[in-house]
Amino acid sequence: MSTRTRVGPTGLTTAPALDVDRLLDDRSVGIIVCCGSGGVGKTTTAAAPALRAAERGRTVVVLTIDPARRLAQSMGIESLDNTPRPVTDVDPAAGGSLDAMMLDMKRTFDEVVESQASPEKAQQILENPFYIALSSSFAGTQEYMAMEKLGQIHADARRDGTYDLIVVDTPPSRSALDFLDAPERLSSFLDGRFIKLMLAPAKGPAKLLGAGFSLITNALTKVLGAQVLRDLQTFVTAIDTVFGGFRQRAMRTYALLQADGTAFLVVAAPEPDALREAAYFVERLSEDAMPLAGLVVNRASAPPSGDLSADEAMAAGQRLRAKDPASVTAGLLRLHADQSRSVEREARLRAGFAKAHPQVPTAVVPALAADVHDLSGLRRIGALLADSGA
To answer: What CATH number does residue 81 fall under?
Structure first.
């Protein structure tokens, strides 16, 4: 795909085109990660290329980490969970298939415990109140488990030959890139002073602990109670023994995201805030040496029909309204002017992004009259993505 900056007919800088079909047909690409701020149609933008890739012959699974459940609805699945579910009514002519799943944070956490500990030890951990709280609601757990699940899917696909393309729909806003920080965050947590202090009774002779540790545990016992403190120490010991393996796997997944077989798509709306967020994503991905495939500008205003400029349409409408205040044509001319100005404003915004990031290929998808809620709508979005590149 071309990476040369172009200049449009209005003199504005335009980005090179993102060739979506070329990306989907490239068998060396095994992972596509869609990231972007909330409310820009990111989930749909992940599902549409996944469906298009399947109907072009790829065996695809799409994993949504977004807590919104619109992906299941659009694919005609009653509900999604941690197990891939086949999407029916996918055109099988090219030999492809599509499965969909949604990250179940708690279930994935439990699977890590069950795979790394003996049945007795696993049961002890799963019933620990601190573990239950961590696995259900601890800040960042979703991103940790996203790394884990992506690594699981990729490893299983390589071993069993189940999928040749994994499409990941990330959480909204800047947390979309938090999963890139998951290995470092987990390492910092496990290597923190408090964790090491709580592990001390299990790792070293009591004579090495000194009076300082006794003072701390006595204080904690008064605040928390003896049983709560024992539960906490049990939990800390458990995560140290069980999640060392997760830390290593998360680092491997991080390396996988940097590999040539991965492609990131940044999704944005044609609005200042959304494009600023997109710029943040692009810069962060560049800093982390993550392979960026391009930018998708979603829900763009479609140019109105006809050759009238916004100023010409507004002037003509004002002349008609002066003669007939109730003129329907004058109202239509005003709508034409408003639409033209929206198109011009969005073009300037995209030009500003292209000037700052001239090497980022871009696809522009026009807004549809209604929300996408079925496979037909996803096919249309996929076709629009491909047409933008063409």
So the answer is: 3.40.50.300
